[in-house]
Amino acid sequence: MAIDPRLVVTGFRPDGAAVVVGDTLVTPITARALPGQEMYLMWGSPDGGATVGPKAAPPVTLPFFAGAGGTRLLLVRFPPASSVPPPSTEEERAEIDAEVEERLPGLMDVFEPGDTSGMHTTDTLDYGICLEGELWLELDSGDEVRLTPGACVVQQGTRHAWHNRAATPALMAFVGIGAERAS
């Protein structure tokens, strides 16, 4: 049975007691450029660092990638590999790209123009956990590793791609922490 992503958020009453301030199912964001993929933008902290307490900053989920010191919590459901044809015209490609930028600002900025391999590089430290299905992590060196439920990945800003080579969807949870790239 597939997981339905749900977000439970705690906070404070005026007297300082801890309470549940939110409990909701999260609606996925989809885009034609990513056929069958579902992005669940759960929560994030502003760039520069998180705060807690009665006057904590409100959640930030966009832009897609956090800047230095910011965080993002998201779940991504990857569909099985498919043979979805690429857009047939430049106009269609521009329309699809505009849709992604509107729904998931900053996501496509990390992909190399014209590269259909899915390889990308982010300035984030990412913790990933496979929750459902199986997914392959590919690195630009050619190294690949198969992830199954319970596998945890620490992605340290390397060039990589995700591939679902199975017949069923795969669900990954990611915590992305915006980082400065050291030379």
From TrEMBL:
Matches recorded under SUPFAM superfamilies: RmlC-like cupins
Protein's name in the database: Cupin domain-containing protein
Any matching Pfam family: Cupin_2
Gene3D superfamilies (UniProt xref): Jelly Rolls
Superkingdom per UniProt: Bacteria
Start and end residues of each Cupin type-2 domain: 110-175
